DNA sequence: TTGTGTTTTATTGCCTCC
DNA sequence: GGAGGCAATAAAACACAA
């Protein structure tokens, strides 16, 4: 390995930097600035004790991490906005312009991409969560409506049965549930179904194979989320990603987003399960 | 002033691509 | 096999409440 050599950064910031023969070569041990290495490079110090002198540490040792100046950061930010990947030529140009080592520029971009990704994940989570919350409130409204309609059906059925029993035993015995009641119930089902499927992207809540409203009183929670604008959310993610992300990163990124959303949904499902699924 | 949490800069190890 | 990207992490710098 090309061992790091100390280079005094001639920039106005006076950073002391460890450099290899290229900006990417120095990837050695945690710090080559341990005592032995430093001694090797500073033969004018005759002893370890000398090197340990506080005065030396205060005044002579290479400076520790330095923050970039606001001007440097501004230029880097602008460059990042233009393009978040850094091709070698641009890296060299930026480094020259900023008085930094190319490696520092590369590191800054790497860290900046990581920060961008974190923020982006937060934004997408918020987006999905608000979609979910809005869907949940829609569902709550439909559920209440459902309850109301069911109780209406129930009271009408009762009334009808009372009426038929008062009509006398000489007549045909009524079916367990009168045809009228069933018709009424069917009507209600259709009404609810219409309401739920219209303008919702066609998610049939009372589907043919699924549990029916009157028989089971099962949940109306749809298989998909008709009110949830996940498509739009995904579009948003997609378009933003496309600006500066690869197809692969978008894919893995989306899977992360949806895993998070799914996890959240699962938690909600468990929390609300007592009335969702009972 | 000091303890603590957050942000920024830098390193390391692993992976993919050419 | 080298170059470069990313995730995880260390550590310095910074912010801020007590």
Topology:
Layout: E1 5-8, E2 16-19, H1 35-41, H2 48-52, H3 54-59, H4 70-82, H5 88-98, H6 102-166, H7 179-197, H8 213-216, H9 230-244, H10 247-276
Antiparallel strand pairs: 1-2
The structure holds a DNA duplex (18 and 18 nucleotides).
pLDDT < 50 stretches: 1-61, 174-186, 188-258, 271-278
Helix-strand pattern, N to C?
EEHHHHHHHHHH
The helix/strand class is mainly alpha
What form results from the Cα inertia axes?
rod-shaped
| Largest beta sheet: strand ordering | 1-2
The biggest beta sheet reads:
2 strands, antiparallel
The helical percent reads 55-70%
End-to-end CA span: 66 Å
Q: Approximately how much beta-strand content do the residues carry?
A: under 5%
**Count of strand segments:** 2
Q: Overall mean pLDDT score?
A: 59
Please work out how many helical segments DSSP would assign. 10
Rg: 35 Å
Pfam families: HALZ, Homeodomain
Function: Transcription factor.
Protein name: Homeobox-leucine zipper protein
GO molecular function: DNA-binding transcription factor activity, RNA polymerase II-specific; identical protein binding; sequence-specific DNA binding
